[in-house]
Amino acid sequence: MHFPRSAGILLHPTSLPGAFGIGDLGSSCGHFIQFLKECNLHLWQILPLGPTGYGNSPYQTLSAFAGNPLLISPEELAKENLVTDADLQNLKGHPETKVDFFRVIALKEDLIRRAHDRYLAGHAPNLKQDFDTFCHQNCDWVDDYALFRALKNRYNHSQWTRWPINLRRREQKALQRSHEEMAHTIELFKFEQFLFSRQWHAVKKLAHENGVEFIGDIPIFIAHDSSDCWAHQHMFDLTEDGETRLGAGVPPDYFSETGQLWGNPVYHWDRMAESGFEWWVNRLRTTLTLVDRARIDHFRGFDAYWAVPAGHENAIHGEWKPGPGKDFFKVIAERLGELPIIAEDLGVITDTVRDLRDHFDFPGMKILQFAFGDANGTNDFLPHNYEKNCVVYPGTHDNDTSQGWFQSLSADANNHGARESRALILKYLNKDNGTNIHWDLAIMAFSSIADTAIIPLQDILGLGTQARMNLPGVAENNWEWRFSAQQLTDEIRDKLRSLVQLYNRNHTNL
Length: 510
Fold this sequence. Notes:
- The protein has a domain at about 1-195 and about 485-510: Alpha-Beta Barrel (TIM Barrel).
- The strands form two sheets. The chain has an eight-stranded parallel sheet. A four-stranded antiparallel sheet has the order 5-4-7-8, with no helix packed on it.
- The chain is of the alpha/beta class.
- The chain has helices at about 25-40, 75-80, 85-90, 100-120, 130-135, 140-155, 165-170, 170-180, 185-210, 225-230, 270-275, 280-290, 325-335, 350-360, 400-410, 415-430, 435-445, 455-460, 490-500, and strands at about 5-10, 45, 215-220, 245-250, 260-265, 295, 305-310, 320, 340-345, 365, 390-395, 450-455.
- Helix 5 (about 130-135) packs across helix 6, helix 12 (about 280-290) packs across helix 13 and helix 15 (about 400-410) packs across helix 16 (about 415-430).
- The chain has 19 helices and twelve strands.
- About 40% of the residues lie in helices and about 10% in strands.
């Protein structure tokens, strides 16, 4: 699917400013939408919206369907008469530039319990019909999710393969007994999802009213410790005990001598095909009610995926296995219509992956930080080699900021490759130095023929490595970065508005 010539910003909502320790779906969302409108930017790209588990990664969520309760706005709860002013005061006093997840999680869980208690006490009677409708319309996933979360609470947050065997195997008598014994907690988790959905759709409506579309993110694989894996064990390559038999990853390449071992369970694609890929149809349908376009992370896994037997410490001893290929997207398109999908086609990409991407006219991705590894001008990530149907970024959430990346090249004076890359960048830009490398790369993206240009907010603000969102392979201190409202200056607004006009990127599907 081709998109109009446009531009936007990559920013996860957790990074928004605010008084409650983490960005949320309250007024800060509205302020950022207004900022995008004033810049004539029509796209806001986010990371996956699901509830995070250990490590707080939005790419390892407890559900492929549920929303992250940490994004629920206390301000909006107060407007609904679900929390009090005193409740809001108890949430303040957090650091402004990073998320203290340990503290935020505890405070948000307590706040949502208070909101649910007030709802049950009759403080927001107008919500009852909407809540009942939400539960009915989403029963295909929210029932399993709420029970899964309640059971995790009961069993000290252990993963589901450590639960009693009758619950691991989902024996009906055990499930029914759990429903009866934990009815209040199960409803609490349903109510939490109702609140997230209500607030998110209000944000999306406001965005559309201001000409802003959302680009979401779908990780191809899901977490083993998720309600989806527990509820649909037959769809995954698991042992009889529910443990992962084959884990997903990527083989050794020039980024890593041992590859990457993610550990997510791989799919039984043949079983999914027998059901008409029903779970995936529902997953994509749900995602496309939340966002306007969806980036599929690790798109190449639909062509072939790297499967590593359980027990290995790295990804060396895996093998390529065939994915569902074109049959998958044909079925999805028949059920859902034209697919507004962006294919994350990074890494070592084969001709068959390109054929799968191009057969369905999905735009691929171009990363400018990957463009300067050789001097012969043939690198696919160099703008003069682009096709129109692609999305260009200086870097993604997994990259360093543009300033941090360029400074690392400059600092590594003894590395011949780093010196060559730095020299090539400056030659390509026709610059003597990289003082404003963040704007240089943003202008390179905006001026390219790519239909879509997305700039991480950290690069708009000219921030260094301290503002990096994620360092792959490192388990701690990721996903924490936040900005302050004062950083979005009039000078930045004016510059972005000028670039949008200069490079004709003021277009939208809305």
